[in-house]
């Protein structure tokens, strides 16, 4: 039976010609990675035994074998990182598999113009990820003391008859939480824009839960940036200054990269 084709990434043919692909083990740790040339673009692939890696088998592994999933996802990511160190690339999602080389060729040929444009746009650029965490108790103290809306509400309550003051003060806690959320969003948006001025593109992502991050603080912001390589250093310097200013308010900024352009290169 014809082997399946596991697809890692696409890279420009001229880059591979000037720097040949190094020997790397494939997804099954048995067959090595190789390239398939499709009209100026190299698909980085490996062969898989079709019975061992059928759609049904992989789905069962993903749902019921966490050790297998973690190991294979790690190998996939590490392979992409090694490729990224050497080439401009369009990275593919974990477990992108084709029935054979011909089915891969047909799919690529449908999208050749878009892929060439994407590879041109990604040349000499890097993806960086910004996550912002917030100690809400620290920020709550600041909001309670310094927020003009809270101060105005407290002053308004002081002018009321004693009976009404009692009930209105009960609403203060909710108002503080509302203003805390507004202040948190405002601060995160400012930090995002400080980095965005250096970026070619940016994407705001969904925040992760505490179960995913393993942190005590809530994640308040999660965004990714596509940066030219010569803009990375000034961007990181800007971020370092922003972090010093924000840590007194209970914020922690975490930036990671460079990564393959997962969020700016679709296939």
UniProtKB/TrEMBL annotation:
Keywords: Coiled coil, Gas vesicle
Coiled-coil residue windows: 98-125
Gene Ontology BP annotations: gas vesicle organization
GO cellular component: gas vesicle
Predominant location category: other
Cellular compartment(s): Gas vesicle
InterPro entries (UniProt xref): GvpL/GvpF
Pfam families: GvpL_GvpF
Family of this protein: Belongs to the gas vesicle GvpF/GvpL family.
Name under which the protein is recorded: Gas vesicle protein GvpL
Organism for this UniProt entry: Gracilibacillus dipsosauri
Lineage of origin: Bacteria, Bacillati, Bacillota, Bacilli, Bacillales
């Amino acid at each position: 039976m014809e082997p399946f084709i596991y697809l890692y990434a696409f890279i420009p043919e001229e880059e591979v010609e000037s720097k040949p692909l190094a020997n790397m083990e494939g997804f099954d740790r048995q067959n090595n990675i190789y390239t398939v040339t499709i009209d100026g673009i190299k698909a980085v692939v490996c062969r898989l035994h079709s019975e061992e890696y059928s759609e049904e088998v992989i789905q069962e592994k993903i749902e019921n074998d966490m050790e297998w999933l973690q190991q294979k996802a790690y190998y996939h990511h590490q392979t992409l990182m090694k490729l990224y160190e050497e080439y401009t690339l369009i990275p593919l999602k974990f477990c992108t598999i084709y029935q054979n080389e011909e089915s891969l060729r047909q799919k690529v040929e449908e999208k050749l113009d878009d892929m060439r444009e994407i590879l041109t746009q990604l040349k000499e650029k890097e993806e960086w990820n910004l996550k912002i965490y917030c100690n809400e108790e620290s920020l709550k103290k600041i909001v309670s003391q310094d927020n003009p809306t809270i101060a105005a509400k407290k002053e308004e309550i002081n002018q009321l008859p004693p009976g009404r003051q009692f009930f209105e003060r009960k609403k203060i806690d909710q108002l503080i939480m509302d203003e805390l959320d507004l202040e948190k969003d405002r601060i995160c948006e400012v930090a995002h824009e400080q980095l965005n001025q250096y970026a070619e593109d940016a994407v705001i992502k969904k925040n992760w839960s505490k179960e995913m991050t393993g942190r005590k603080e809530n994640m308040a912001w999660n965004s990714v940036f596509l940066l030219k390589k010569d803009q990375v250093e000034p961007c990181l310097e800007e971020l370092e200054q922003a972090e010093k200013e924000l840590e007194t308010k209970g914020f922690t900024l975490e930036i990671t990269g460079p990564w393959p352009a997962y969020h700016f290169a679709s296939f």
